[in-house]
Every structure is written in C-alpha cells, then in structure tokens.
Amino acid sequence: MGSLGNQHVTNHGGIPVVDFAAWTDSSLHSEKEQIASELIHACQTVGFVYVVNHRIPHETLQEAFAWSKKLFDLKQEDKMLAPHPPGHAVHRGYSWPGLEKVSNNMGDEADPDLATKLRQVSDIKESYEIGSDDYSDQPNVWLPEHVLPGYREFMTNFYWHSWENAKMILRAMAIGLSLDDQDFFLPYHTGHENQLRLLHYPPVPAANIEEGSMTRMDAHSDWGTITMLFQDDCGGLQIGDPNKPGQFMDAQPLQDAIVLNVGDLLQRWSNDTLKSSLHRVTLPPRQDRFTGDEKLTRARYSIPYFVGPVGNSRIGTVPSCTDEKHPSKYEPITWDDYRLMRGSMQYESKEALAA
To answer: Tens digit of pLDDT for each residue in 319-342?
Structure first.
C-alpha cells in the first residue's frame, strides 16, 4: 500500500496523487465517485498519476524488487537460458541490452529501413517479460527452476496480485467516465493478456547518455489500456510536461506508489478524452546518483505491469465519450492488430536477426 497514510496529497512534483484508501468493498458510491473523478481528471490533463494506498503491500513490493535484483545479478549465460523469442510477435523471457529498441513510431511508417535506423543508438537496459501461464499466444519462457529457485512461484503470484489491483483501477475509470456499469472494461480484460516486466538499467557513463551515443529508454507512449509502474528510488523517469509541449518533467520516486499512465489504446477507446503521454528514462536528476571519475549512473530497477484486452476484442468508442457533437474519431480495431503493428518497430524481425 502507499506510504502516505491518511495524509491528503494531491500533487507530487507536478503529477497528481490519487489516494485509494477509501475504496473498499463497503465504500459508499459517493466515496468511489470522488476517487474516480480525481483519477479521470489526472488522466485527462497529465495522463500520469501516482496511486497511493492501493492493494499491494509494501512488503510484497520489496520482495518483488529483491527478486528482480537476484535475476539480473545472475551470470549472463544463466539469464540466456530463458531468451526472448526472435522477432516482435511474442514478448516473453529475457531481453539482453540492445535487443529491444523502444520508440514512439507506430509501425505503419512508409520507410522500410526506419527500424534499422532507430537501432543505431542502443537502449542500455535488460528486461524479463512474464505473462499468464494459460495464455498460449504468448507462452512464458521461464528459467530452469534450479537457476533461481522460487522465482517463478513468486512472480506468478505477483502477476495475479497486480491484476486484482488493476481491476480496481479499471472500475474507478468506468465510474469516472460516467458509465452505468463499473465493470464496463472487465469483459474485455481477463488478466491473461497482461504483461509483467522486470527492468534493469545497468550503470553507464553519464556522458554517453548526455551526448546521445546511448539511451536508457527513448520517449514513447505505451500501447495498451493502462500501465502500472513500480520504481525504485533512483529516479530517471520523465513524462511529457502538459504545460510545455516538447519538454519533460521528472516523475520523482514516491515510495510504494503506483505510477499509473493511460495507454494509447485507452486514449483511442475514450475518443481522446483520456491522454496517453510520452515518457522516457534518462539520467537520474540528483548528483548523488553518479559515482566515480567516469560519473557512472547508479543502477535503476523498475517493474511495469501492462494491462491489455483480449486479443480479438474489437475496440470502438466508450459510449459516454461520443455524441452528436463528438463523433468517434477512430475506426474499430482489434487489440491483436494494433499490438502487432506497434511491436514491429520494437524488435528486429527474424529475418534481420538471421542476416
């Protein structure tokens, strides 16, 4: 749960803070409406919000980060026992530094060489992708149990714990969008299509980031419905400044808070009522985050949980977000088609890898 207790906080470094302490099974509808209204306002104006007093305990988050560190501390040959499959269709297992290139390109650009050009500057990070073991379209790639005993069991439980929390947020969004059914979004989402990602940004010379020869993660937006992010205290996450187009502001670490953001699909789904904002990972904002003569960055760990709908779900427009004066801006699209279009820019094709 968030660490702010009953203290009423509405803003942290320019990003709204929404407190879910009053959201319980026995809450009055008016109490839920107040929380939902604050959540939607944040998603309309900034696209990012800190969620505190949620349903994932401090101890569970500490354990998740401890497991993440154990994973990335393994020898490279051990991590490569669970490699990310070739190409962009399946996102599971271990991605080594340089394999993935994050950008904000849609995947429908005319330049056939754009993906190769983007890779001329590498993302210096490694990650491990986890999903539901019952989702055959995206089969998990697990490490052998003897390499990291207990890792699979904990991460499986954490995946589903995170989904329970995400359902609470989706219900709040439905209420905030004035939908009659607070469960409006849930039939589109079973939990099996989500993605849990462990991320590690290893130390690199700060000068390499500053001069642009390396990146941690370029500016991009997320593809899906919502993303829930847990981050350590290192810093480096920045979001697009809603008041200064083209500029970014720090998403300062707030202990145990979820950094929640709207995904591109939900912006489309809401007829642009909600805002999917650009964000990136760059240098930590404080000087004590660097060490040694080379001014090495401190290692950074984060854990995003991406929420997406069933693959063949046909996503049109939320009923409360369109009327005669506000017609639908987008044609319906399935999540599978949208996801594959976006993913084509992120990982090299099997053919390119074999070349």
So the answer is: 999 999 999 999 999 999 998 888
Rounded CA separation 35/20 (Å): 7
pLDDT digits (tens, 9 = 90+) for 132-150: 999 999 999 999 999 999 9
Total-model pTM: 0.89
Q: For residues 31 and 24, give the distance between their C-alpha atoms in angstroms, rounded to a whole number.
A: 9
Structure tokens belonging to residue 80: 């490569």
Q: Are 88 and 343 in contact (CB under 8 A)?
A: yes
